[in-house]
Amino acid sequence: MAKADNMLSILWMLRSGRKITAQQIADELEIHIRTVYRCIDSLCASGAPIIADSGPNGGYRLLGAFAESPLMFDADEQKALVHASIFAREAGYPFTEALERAIHKLKRYTNEEQLHQIELHGGGITVLQPPVSQEIRSLLRTLENASAHGITLKMTYSKGRGQDASVREFDPYSIVHWKGHWYAAGFCRLRQEVRSFRVDRMSGLELTDHRFERPDNFSAKDVLLGGLIPDTGNAENLEYVIIRGHEFTLNELCQHWLFGHTLVKRLPEEAHFRLAADSLMSYVPYFLLPYGKALTVLEPRSLIMRLWEVAGGMARHYEALLTEMKTYEE
């Protein structure tokens, strides 16, 4: 039996709560008593609080509280768990309090050196995310619970922009965190199709008596991005876009959610995309404007014209503002 298997077996024997001598362990596992001593030393070095009582009624036992902890983690696993908790907390993870309790238990069952390392690594990572309110966290908990148990929800939802809220029944297949926002993806019984909804636009969720089963092949990522990125199979609605620029600038552009998912060809100083024709007249120019002259659109002409219109409009806006400020100063 490998040393790791011996250590785990010894730990499980000690979790029974009774004292066990080294000879009893050796007899039970059919190993040499010196192997037992080496395994006990390794377990103690790993942070297992094993107590050795000497005398006629002596033996090994575990510190009482440790019996509630079924797993041990090495240094890298401990670091990863602490870092993951930081990401989850800052992203608005709905079960942050339970996660914090788990990390507290992790710290409680470590030795002094391990705890020192956990604190060092925990203080070495920072995550910047928009704050998530308690109301949103409460909605996320309801959505996650309904998703896990297949419970249909009655949802009040507002599309924003001053539109009236609508009430619909919704089967939440999954919750999704993307670009600083939480979404719920699932089957909308009002529209009779799979859709995604922003959680911060939900004003109420109520459990219903209806039940659902999540499809085996469901992908929340596909649903969310599918509502933003056009179907590449519909060539009539797509425009071929060619953008020239420095390789590093193009690399940054291709990390954008839209351009990264619509890239069809990449050259050292050129990138080719297939984008929805209507998007070229709406939001695409505003994604490109921050790059200024670092990027040059070569095709199509319609996007070039639209960029010229948008940039010209901004120039006229600030020209008028400067004129107004100059008049005020005089």
Question: How would you describe this structure to a colleague?
Answer:
The chain has 330 residues and is of the alpha+beta class. The chain folds into four domains: 3-68, Orthogonal Bundle (Arc Repressor Mutant, subunit A); 75-122; 134-226, SH3 type barrels (Roll); 235-314, Alpha-Beta Plaits (2-Layer Sandwich). Helix content is 45%, strand content 23%. It contains 13 helices and eleven strands. The protein has helices spanning 3-14, 22-29, 33-45, 75-91, 96-108, 112-122, 134-149, 220-226, 247-254, 257-262, 277-280, 284-288, 301-329, and strands at residues 50-53, 59-62, 151-157, 166-178, 181-188, 193-198, 202-211, 238-245, 263-267, 270-276, 295-299. The strands form three sheets. The chain has a five-stranded antiparallel β-sheet. Strand 4 and strand 5 form a beta hairpin. Helix 2 crosses helix 3 (33-45), helix 4 (75-91) packs antiparallel against helix 5 (96-108) and helix 4 runs parallel beside helix 6 (112-122). The longest helix has 29 residues, at 301-329. It is elongated. The model has no long low-confidence stretch (mean pLDDT 87).
Number of DSSP helical runs? 13
CATH class of the largest domain: Mainly Beta
Q: Number of DSSP strands? A: 11
Parts with pLDDT < 50 across at least 5 consecutive residues: none
Strand content: 15-25%
* Class from secondary-structure proportions: alpha+beta
**Sheet with most strands:** 5 strands, antiparallel
What is the N-to-C order of secondary-structure elements (H for helix, E for strand)? HHHEEHHHHEEEEEHEHHEEHHEH
Supply the number of structural domains.
4
CATH domain topology of the largest domain = SH3 type barrels
Mean pLDDT, rounded to whole units?
Answer: 87
- The order of strands across the largest sheet is 6-5-4-3-7
**Backbone CA Rg:** 30 Å
Span between termini: 91 Å
